[in-house]
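Subject: for your reference before the review

Hello V.,

The reviewers asked for a structural picture of the protein, and I figured it would be easier to keep everything in one thread rather than splitting it across files. Below is the amino acid sequence we used in the manuscript, unchanged from the supplementary table.
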Amino acid sequence: LSLIDFQDAMRGPYIYDLVALLADSYIEMDRKTRLSLVDSYARRRGFDLEALRRDFDLQTVQRKLKDAGRFVFIDRVRGNPSFLKHFGSSLKLVGEALEALPEYAALSERLSALIEGFPNAVPQPAPVSGAERGS
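And here is what came back from the structure prediction:
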């Protein structure tokens, strides 16, 4: 039995699907468990552990920032606020990944300045009503 999710059949970085599986905004998983699974993947595939972890964290930052923005877009443009509840968990994952990337401290500081509660106590954005959306 197998399942193939083509992710819109687009090419992406080699680590993209691993991030999609292990850093899912809808599933609660602690970083220790997540990294244990990343390490197991690295060993089985013969990848350099430190390089894979770094790539995993970098891809997590990109993917989770995109997800957070997408959740707001889905509310604001499509009128579906159901994904807003995952906004904070996406940004928490960004914060965890940035902690492992000290060379990106400036990005972490900027996000902290722009987003209330970043990274661990980000409030859920309020949904936009139809009148505010212009519909």
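For the response letter, the relevant points are probably these. The chain has a mean pLDDT of 93. DSSP finds six helices and no strands in the chain.

Happy to draft the paragraph if you're swamped.

O.
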